[in-house]
Amino acid sequence: MMSTLVCFHAHPDDEAISTGGLMALAAKQGHRVVLVCATRGEQGEPQEGVLLQGEELWERRVVELAEAARLLGADEPRLLGYEDSGMMGEPTNDNPNCFWQAEHDEATQRMAAILREVEADVLTIYDENGGYGHPDHIRVHTVGKAAAELIGLEHVYEATMNRDHIEELMAAAVEAGEDVGEDIDPNSFGTASADITFGIDVSSAVDLKKAAIVAHRSQVGPDSFFLAMPDEAFAQAFGLEWFNVPGSTSTGGPKMVSLLPGLD
Hints:
The protein is α/β, with parallel strands linked by helices. The chain has one domain (4-162, 191-257): LmbE-like (Rossmann fold, 3-Layer(aba) Sandwich). The protein has eight helices and eight strands.
């Protein structure tokens, strides 16, 4: 029996980076894939020369989002209707129309209405820190979790980053003489491998995932590390996707699955 997967994200391009492989694999297997984006990514930094004269960044990002969704096999994206809050601590966090300032119950009702309409079987959100502390990502976690509880949706999973996997990749890059930039506090993002519930090998869909990332041309320039990476390195970095069950800890390491439970 085919199921409906809903992936809830904060900004255009988040979907391709963190759940693009899952979305593509689910669509390939005949499941319905629905993408919901909380904002239109108004606070992104456009690549030089991408926007047409008079074109607003959000206008381009909505078009890019639709193209990425098409590549991944998803329905036309649905927007929750809030504005991008910008990074934590920025003045844009005070915008009354931004997702960070949204009335929680109202936002929950909006998301719940979509989940009911599409008859969602599986929902992905972010971990409780929003992956890396972005206010809109944190709101996706709280609003998505509350909406699922409101309609009694059982299968909810938190997209996260595997700290240990990232550290291993960075260590290998340093050993190979590559510049990996500034040191990153490992406790500032994602989840330790031992506490991750599920891992999915999306290497068979990594080409689609990369194409979806590149579709966000206003954010991904020709010198982006996404494009600079050799295919093998890209597959190593983005060929696995990681998910937690809300509230679960100390699982002993991720169980590798072909698709999240509820889509099998």
